[in-house]
Every structure is written in C-alpha cells, then in structure tokens.
C-alpha cells in the first residue's frame, strides 16, 4: 500500500451500537485493524491473551506507562486499561486503519497526542430511542437508569470535539456510511501534504 | 429533506477532468444542483440563457454586485463572471448540495464568506500525467504549453487551502469517491451542531 493508515477512535452513547458497528466494519472490509487493549484485570473464563485483551500484571503495566508504550490509559474500578502503541504503529505503517473503541476522556487524550486521529461519535437517531436503550427492558432499577442517563448527559457534552457524528439508525447503512467517511478522510488535503508537495516539485522541474 | 445542502467548490488543474466529474455526479445522483454562472459575455451559437449561463448586460451585472446578489465574481478577458446567490440559496434550502466549478481565487473568496463551503481540488494521479494533458496532443506551440505549466504551478500553490485532494485516475471510481466524501461531510460534527444540541437538551429533560 502506498498510504499510511488512519488512527480512528470510535466513542458513543452506551446502547448506540458501537461494538456492532466496529464488528461490521472489521468483517465487511479488509482495511481495518482493531486495537486490542492491555489491562491489569484478570482474564474471565474463555478470554484469551491477545484476543479480548493483552493481560498484564500491574508491574508490567506500570513499565509500559514508564516506557511510553501506551497511547493512552485509564483506571476503571481498580484496574488499568490502555492502548499499546507498538501494535497500533505497526498496523498504521502497513496501511491499515486502526480502530480504538474508547470513551471520550481517552479519545481527547489520543487526539491531543496524535492530532491526525479521526474521532467518530456514534448515536442512536434521537434521544427517545437513546432513552429506551438506556432504560433497557424494564429489568433495571431506578438507580441504574439514572446512572446511565447521567453518563449519557456527560458524554453528550463533548460531542463537538469529535470530527463526525454517526447516526446509527439502520446498522447496514451505518456500516457503509462510516466506511465511506473513513475512506473519504484519506483524501483530506491535510493528510496528503507530501503528495501535494511532490506534485508541486514535479511541476517546477518541467 | 431534513438537512440543508452543502455548498461545494470544485477546482483543479486544467486537464484534471473536473467537468466530466461534475457531469458524472449530476447524472448519477439526484442530490446535486449545479450552479449556473452569470456573465456579461455574449451568448455563443447554441447557448441558452439559464442553461450554460445567465446572460446579463454590464449594467445588470453591476446592479447584481451592488445589491449583493453574487456570491463571488471575477473579470476575465474583459467580461464579468459571477455566481448568483439566489439560485444557490434556494437549492441549498431545498436540501441539494450545490456545486460551483470555479478557480482557486474565487474558491477562497467563497470560503471566506461562507466558511462551511467544501473545497475540493481535482488532480490527475501524478505530475507526469498532468504534464501530458497540459502539453496536449503535440499540436500546441511552446508558448501555450509554457503558459499552461505556469498556470498549473500557480494553482498548485493553493492546494492545502482546499479540504480534499481528489485524485482522478479512474473516472467511475472518482465519481463514487467524490460522492462519498460529500455525503460523509454531512455527518461532520461541525455541520450538526443543532442536532447535537437537541440530543443534549432532550437528555437533560428526562
């Protein structure tokens, strides 16, 4: 391939269908790689190292932080989660577009460190559908629902900082549309500076 | 339609196939309107008012300038050419993406006045192909070729100010790719501020 991959962060409301969207992209197209997180959480039954996560001891994880081997990391319920840099870099260099599925705080940290990162925010078509999905099937208690609504409200505060707002109404259409957005981004002038300079130099040489 | 159209400026090197690309977009998809320019140039045989151009007297054209009825205008070989605002606005309001085919100076003026304008620059796959097209079929004299190369060199100076660099290698692929870029742009967070605010307000009201 003659082009470098794009680092993509997909975030979105819980219940927006991020996971299904990512799986759809991965299975339908060959140009994507999914970034596997490192974590200090213990593997659950059936989870394999290098499949769901790279499982690390706390010491190994701290070493990764100290040696700048993580693009971003966060602590959640006592465990660390992070994005290993090496895997992402090698996939980008081979031309793959690499997808990270992380929440907004991590997304903004990645964008700060790598301004070329493409930030996608996934939402259901409207807030009523969102509420239905947050409320769930009537099995959740009041507190859980309130907690989810609070979280969605917080998440909504940062949407403008994303590059694109992806409305997931029909999943199939959403997969194709997201793919088109990402492939279109490869043609952004700001991602083709060396190609532009090359054309310019050649023109001058004639 | 529940969305407003996008104003699109297509520029590019002479010989890049802009015109064919625009015709392809217009004939293959229903969401585009092509902006017809106003001009003080006399109609040529077969040209109809409102088809190739809106033909205006110099006085009429000056009135359009004075009454802010042109998005941009320029003088070229003694004649005025400009983009009538009313037609563009009405098409955008009806949800059509409106295409202007103008050169870089006009493109940058439009972007300054309407920052939401999408600027696309079309180029052949590389400078050798570009040179072949500029040099033509061997029928042009040295001066004409030099003039074309100079113009391309000037045009190349401004490419970074465009949003996308469209490489026209295979025309069919280029039409689809350009369409995908434009449709993807409709999902830009910056073009969906009111939708984002609406989701936010609804979430707060729950």
UniProtKB/TrEMBL annotation, chains A, B:
PROSITE patterns according to UniProt: GUANYLATE_KINASE_1, GUANYLATE_KINASE_2
Keywords: ATP-binding, Cytoplasm, Kinase, Nucleotide-binding, Transferase
Catalyses which reaction(s): GMP + ATP = GDP + ADP
A Pfam family reported for this protein in Swiss-Prot or TrEMBL: Guanylate_kin
Domain Guanylate kinase-like: 5-183
UniProt EC number: 2.7.4.8
Domain of life according to the entry: Bacteria
GO CC term, one of those recorded: cytosol
Subcellular location: Cytoplasm
Matches recorded under CDD domains: GMPK
Record: residues binding ATP: 12-19
UniProt key word Transmembrane helix: no
GO molecular function, one term: GMP kinase activity
Family, similarity comment: Belongs to the guanylate kinase family.
Task of the protein: Essential for recycling GMP and indirectly, cGMP.
HAMAP family named in the record: Guanylate_kinase (MF_00328)
Name used for this protein in its record: Guanylate kinase
Species of origin: Lachnotalea glycerini
């Amino acid at each position: 391939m003659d082009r470098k991959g794009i680092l993509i962060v997909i975030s979105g409301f819980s219940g927006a269908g991020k996971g299904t969207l990512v799986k759809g992209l991965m299975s339908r197209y060959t140009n994507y790689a999914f970034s596997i997180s490192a974590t200090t959480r213990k593997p659950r039954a059936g989870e394999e190292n290098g499949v769901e996560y790279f499982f690390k001891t706390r010491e190994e994880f701290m070493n990764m932080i100290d040696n700048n081997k993580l693009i971003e990391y966060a602590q959640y319920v006592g465990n660390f989660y992070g994005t290993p840099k090496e895997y992402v870099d090698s996939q980008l260099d081979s031309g793959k577009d690499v997808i990270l599925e992380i929440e907004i705080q991590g997304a903004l940290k990645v964008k700060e460190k790598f301004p070329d990162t493409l930030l996608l925010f996934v939402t259901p078509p409207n807030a009523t559908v969102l509420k239905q999905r947050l409320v769930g099937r009537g099995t959740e208690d009041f507190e859980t629902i309130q907690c989810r609504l609070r979280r969605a409200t917080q998440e909504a505060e940062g949407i403008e900082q994303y590059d694109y707002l992806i409305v997931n109404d029909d999943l199939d259409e959403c997969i194709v549309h997201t793919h088109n957005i990402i492939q279109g981004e490869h043609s952004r002038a700001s991602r083709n500076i060396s190609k532009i300079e090359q054309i310019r130099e050649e023109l001058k040489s004639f």
